[in-house]
Amino acid sequence: MKKYRKERFDTANVRSLLEPGPVVLVSSAWEGRANIMTMGWHMMIGFKPALFGCYIDESNHSYDMVRRSRECVINLPTADLLEQVIGIGNCSGADTDKFALFGLTPEKAGEVAAPLIAECYASFECRLADAHPNPNHPLFVWEIVRAHVAKSRTPPKTLHYRGNGRFMISGREIDTRQQFPNQTK
Ligand SMILES: Cc1cc2nc3c(=O)[nH]c(=O)nc-3n(C[C@H](O)[C@H](O)[C@H](O)COP(=O)(O)O)c2cc1C
């Protein structure tokens, strides 16, 4: 096994290596208006029920929309939506209809008012389980109440954000199922 010679690294850039992925698009709805934001800071924190934790900064219009509606949809874009992912993450739903501007199609969800995004590989309908579990950080915990995934189960080419305008695209899948007798991991 290779050993790495390391050097001191700026802690502000650690995100470039520990950034979770994939980048998702969060759709929300409130008082008849829908919005979308790009999100890279999230993690799964339970699978039965399926719990999803994320960071939504207070400065985002989506913050108010999800706080008020207590619902959202987490949509999984593929690499061909890179331009939309960047654009949606660099403008505000306070003054922009992002579905119209970025040519995306809202679809009716089954359990929540927020729309699914038809162009995304998967969409997960969420209800708020816990807002601000820590008062110092704008964290949200969502329960995924309904999941929609593309019929073609080819592993999607997802986008993973490394900060400062750099993305990675997910690569080769390695199947090691025989080494996982306990299927829950
Ligand atoms: C690749 C990428 C990842 C982002 N990740 C997050 C995130 O995890 N949390 C967050 O609060 N904002 C994140 N943003 C910023 C929001 O998407 C951005 O502020 C957006 O304009 C918010 O839209 P809104 O004001 O309509 O809600 C990200 C932006 C980009 C481009």
Question: Topology, please?
Answer:
Layout (H helix, E strand, L loop, with lengths): L14 H4 L5 E7 L2 E7 L2 E6 L2 E6 L5 H9 L1 E6 L5 H7 L9 H4 L4 E2 L8 E2 L4 E10 L7 E11 L9 E3 L5 E3 L16
Antiparallel strand pairs: 1-2, 1-5, 3-4, 4-9, 5-8, 6-7, 8-9, 10-11
The site of flavin mononucleotide (FMN) has 20 residues, from strand 2 and helix 2.
In short:
By secondary structure, the protein is mainly beta.
Task: Give your account of this protein's structure.
It contains 4 helices and 11 strands, in the order αββββαβααββββββ. The protein has helices at residues 15-18, 61-69, 82-88, 98-101, and strands at 24-30, 33-39, 42-47, 50-55, 71-76, 106-107, 116-117, 122-131, 139-149, 159-161, 167-169. A 7-stranded antiparallel β-sheet has the order 2-1-5-8-9-4-3. Strands 6-7 form a two-stranded antiparallel ribbon. Strands 10-11 form a two-stranded antiparallel ribbon. It is globular, with a radius of gyration of 17 Å. Residues 23, 35, 37-41, 55-57, 60-62, 86, 89-93, 161 line the site of flavin mononucleotide. The site of flavin mononucleotide (FMN) has 20 residues, from β2 and α2.
The molecules bound to the chains, other than polymers, are: flavin mononucleotide
Radius of gyration: 17 Å
Query: What's the mean pLDDT score?
Result: 94
Please work out how many helical segments DSSP would assign: 4
> β content, as a range?
25-35%
- Which residues sit in consecutive blocks of at least 5 with pLDDT less than 50? none
Total number of beta strands:
11
Helix share of residues?
Answer: 10-25%
Largest sheet properties = 7 strands, antiparallel
Globally, the shape reads: globular
Order of strands in the sheet with most strands: 2-1-5-8-9-4-3
Distance from N terminus to C terminus (CA atoms, Å) equals 25 Å
Order of helices and strands: HEEEEHEHHEEEEEE
Task: Specify the structural class.
Answer: mainly beta
